[in-house]
Amino acid sequence: MSSMSEIKRLTPEELLEKRRSTLISRTRAARLQLDSLSLLDTSYDTCRQTLRQWRSQMLDQINKAHETSLSQLNDAYEQINRFRSTIVNLLNEQNTNDHLLSSSSSTQLTQIESSLNTLRHAEFTFDFDRARQLEGELELLKLSNPQQQFRSFNKSNTKCRLLVPYDRYVSDVFFYDDLITRIDCQTSECILVCPFDLLSDLLGNDEEVRILIDQTYLPSIGTQAQRIRIDYSLILLQPAQECCPQSSERVIRIICKDSTKMLSCLEEIYSICNQQVAPIAYNPYNPVNYNRSKTHLYGGYSDIPTQNDTNRTNSLFPLSSNNSSQQHFDRVLMPVSIRQTLPITDMQAGALLGPKGERIQQLQRETGAIVNIGDLNDDNGDRRKRIVNIQGSQQQVNNALQAIKKLLMIVSNDDIGEDSLKRDGEKVKKI
């Protein structure tokens, strides 16, 4: 009511002026909106242009990716075709080879069948006594000529473990990188694990080397130690008195003026080891167990010279005293040593040796004694005698004697059984 009363109080001129001001304000607001619309158009044009550029770039990239994929697919298709042709050729060659093998196999089968028919119609008797005698003579011939049974080994696969001072061969190990392994525990000595074919490059003209060998191999090396010293003109071939700390390895110290003979000696030692059965409880030496107070016992290196080291260096066995050096080698293997002998026949010698000498080597490993068979002795009996030499401690010798007698008793029983069978067969033939 009050607003209506105010309108009624206004004059027409005032009403027109008020309406005009209202229209002007609305016109200004409309103009501002139009101006804002023109800014939106500009933004729209810019956005549309940007989108068109992005679209063109994306199309270019898609086209390039498509072309690359087509090229790769073509290459793969060509490779698959080549692989297919190779497989077809291999299958054809395999079929040809199978055909040739089948024809050759049929020929071989025919020859084998004819040989078997010949054997079926043949009549012969096998002389077991003569066969055992020949086997024993062959094994003894091998033992009496150890150089002839010397067998080569794979030098690149044989890993030699050398005990060296901590500051030796550092540059050589760095040069050969992964081929030579250095086991170093920041002590006065370290271990180098080196393939045998690199020993000549590593040692050069060095006159002394200390190798680590499992103690189970020492008896086999000790039986040939005297010959090895003579053959290779060694100044020293000396095993340590004890195993390295907390291990089953012993140090063998070798001194030789001739580097070529040194390598030949090492080759024969490792060949002897390779011919033996691998130790069951092999415990390699680790320098982390280094014991300075026992280096003179296990042949290690010490940064503090001791009287024991001096005496050990001055007591090297000269080349002329091979007997005393052999005795030293045996004393190290068996500190309290006795020797006993046992006469046997040729056939018993062959049984004691076993195939390739494996039985006598097993006997040495099990009893700890050194067992070897001596030369022939003249005997007026039907069968020639041989001498078994047994050396070791009292317990070792007793164990070895018991094992040998048990084995010879079994052989004698088998011999009696075979003789009786042979006699029965002769009786049947006569009938």
Approximate shape: elongated
| Strand element count | 9
Read across the widest sheet, the strand sequence of neighbours is 1-3-2
Q: How large a portion of the residues is in β-strands, by DSSP E? A: 5-15%
* H-E string: HHHEHEEHEHHEEHHHHEHHEEH
Number of helices: 14
Tell me what the CATH architecture of the domain at 147-332 is.
2-Layer Sandwich
Main beta-sheet annotation: 3 strands, antiparallel
Distance separating the two termini: 164 Å
- What is the CATH topology of the domain at 147-332? Ribosomal Protein S8, Chain: A, domain 1
Could you name the CATH homologous superfamily of the domain at 147-332? K Homology domain, type 1
The residue-averaged pLDDT reads 76
Unreliably modeled segments: 146-151, 306-328, 416-431
Gyration radius, rounded: 47 Å
Q: Explain this structure to me?
A:
With 431 residues, this protein is of the alpha+beta class. Among the domains are: 147-332, Ribosomal Protein S8, Chain: A, domain 1 (2-Layer Sandwich); 338-430, Ribosomal Protein S8, Chain: A, domain 1. It is built from 14 helices and nine strands. Strands 1-3-2 form a three-stranded antiparallel beta sheet, with no helix packed on it. A hairpin with a 5-residue loop joins strand 2 and strand 3.
